[in-house]
UniProtKB/TrEMBL annotation:
It comes from Pedobacter mendelii. It is found in: Cytoplasm. The gene is murA. It catalyses: phosphoenolpyruvate + UDP-N-acetyl-alpha-D-glucosamine = UDP-N-acetyl-3-O-(1-carboxyvinyl)-alpha-D-glucosamine + phosphate. UDP-N-acetyl-alpha-D-glucosamine binds at residues 97, 319, 341. The keyword Plastid does not apply. SUPFAM superfamilies: EPT/RTPC-like (SSF55205). This is UDP-N-acetylglucosamine 1-carboxyvinyltransferase. Its EC number is 2.5.1.7.
Length: 441
């Protein structure tokens, strides 16, 4: 098993460029299945979850050519639908949560699909009902084999429908949109997610010949077309990486410039970090974070304790709450972190408490952080990463801590962050990859 060894307490300095957006990649790559024409995609992150999906597309029969480090062409002319019956598909599809995203395009173009119950992060229940109910409204029929944990889907006659989503699920909206673009008639999706990544997908589909209106709102109207053509698409930078780097700069008192962030697509993210007292400047399309010895958490106007909670876009993304929590441990003041979507995502705070942070875990969804204003540093410890975002939060804590930290199960981190150790070393971080077995407790 690989682990990171980090010697903390070192100020970092320099420029860092965020990778392409992981959450956009899983949607955009799946959309290549909607056409037999060539689709060229650039700024693809070189991370495990994305590479697994590209490999899965190849197994399905997509012709893939890598043009350079982050640019590929995809041609889904000869798809092998019998691959669904193979043990290889069951193993690969079940190990990748993003594999659910291929269902919508396959239903739209071929009228059938199958999917193993997906895996992914251990962050609590992540329902797929939104996807399935949407497909059923369009006319798909599902059969779940509980013994094999496998879904078979028949959709030989998809028809447009009015769909009111039970939650504004990003992946659910994306999957239903991809199924609807080739369905007969008009589909209306209300309470649709409107994240920048979903807007990117809709704009790409429109360039391919789809007819989607209402992009950027929670009401999407899709007029079905008979066929889609190829296109070129460049993915946005990863907003979660951008937020992670802002938090890392504050925790380590570092002067860092984050390059090419597509600032206008970041929504409230910069403002939330400013509420923690972090100074940052927009410089063109870059974010400059100056070295800052102290940062103080705002209060509400009446003086009451600040609450930072996740909510559907344009609210604050749940993927950055773990980062906000760890950054708050070294701030001056108090904050309540409310993680509404996933009931296990705050369970990594015991490691931060072991490092010297003052946190009260109120329940699976809420934690109160008493910022220690850097009066003493966190201390390095050995710990295990439970999921992607918690793993990076612990990595940020380790970079700011006194002494050496070891983080095990870094495969979780590398599912979402490309060459993170190499890129941090370029800023001056003391981080190295080692082979080590995780502690048994």
């Amino acid at each position: 098993m690989n682990a990171f060894e980090i010697t903390g307490g070192i100020k970092l300095k320099g420029e860092i460029t965020p990778q392409g957006a992981k959450n956009e990649a899983l949607q955009i790559l799946s959309a290549v299945l909607l056409t037999e024409k060539k689709v060229t995609i650039s700024n693809i992150p070189d991370i495990k979850d994305v590479n697994k999906l590209i490999e899965l597309l190849g197994d399905l029969g997509v012709t893939i050519e890598r043009l350079d480090k982050d640019t590929y062409t995809f041609e889904a002319k000869n798809i092998d639908l019998n691959f669904f019956e193979s043990e290889i598909f069951k193993a690969k599809g079940g190990g990748l949560r993003g594999s659910i995203m291929i269902v919508g395009p396959l239903l739209a173009r071929f009228g059938r699909a199958a999917i193993p119950k997906p895996g992914g992060d251990k962050i609590g229940r992540r329902r797929l009902d939104t996807h399935f109910i949407g497909f059923e409204k369009l006319g798909a029929k599902f059969v779940y084999d509980s013994k094999k944990a496998f879904f078979n889907v028949d959709a030989t006659n998809l028809k447009g429908a009015y769909i009111l989503l039970d939650e504004a699920s990003v992946t659910g909206t994306a999957n239903i949109v991809m199924a609807a673009v080739l369905a007969k008639g008009t589909t209306t999706i209300y309470n649709a997610a409107c994240e920048p990544y979903l807007q990117q997908l809709c704009k790409m589909l429109n360039r391919m010949g789809a007819k989607i209106s209402g992009i950027g709102s929670n009401l999407l109207t899709i007029e079905g077309v008979k066929v889609l053509s190829g296109t070129e698409h460049r993915m946005l930078p990863d907003m979660i990486e951008i937020g992670s780097f802002i938090g890392m700069a504050a925790m380590t008192e570092s002067e860092i410039t984050i390059k090419n962030v597509c600032y206008d697509e970041l929504g409230v993210i910069p403002e939330v970090f400013k509420k923690l007292g972090i100074k940052l400047e927009r410089r063109g399309d870059d974010i400059y974070v100056p070295s800052q010895k102290h940062y103080e958490i705002d209060t509400f106007i009446d003086g009451s304790i600040l609450t930072i909670a996740d909510s559907p876009w344009p609210g604050f993304t749940p993927d950055l709450l773990s980062i906000v929590l760890v950054v708050a441990t070294q701030a001056k003041g108090n904050v309540l972190i409310h993680q509404k979507m996933f009931e296990s995502r705050l369970f990594f705070v015991d490691k931060l408490i072991d490092m010297g942070a003052q946190i009260i875990l109120c329940d699976p969804h809420r934690a109160t952080v008493n910022g220690i204003d850097k009066k003493y540093k966190l201390r390095g410890i050995s710990m295990t990463s439970p999921d992607i975002r918690a793993g990076v939060s612990l990595l940020i804590a380790a970079l700011s801590a006194e002494g050496k930290s070891t983080i095990y199960n870094i495969e979780q981190i590398e599912r979402g962050y490309q060459d993170i150790d190499t890129r941090l070393r370029a800023l001056g971080a003391q981080i190295k990859r080692v082979n080590a077995d995780a502690p048994s407790h």
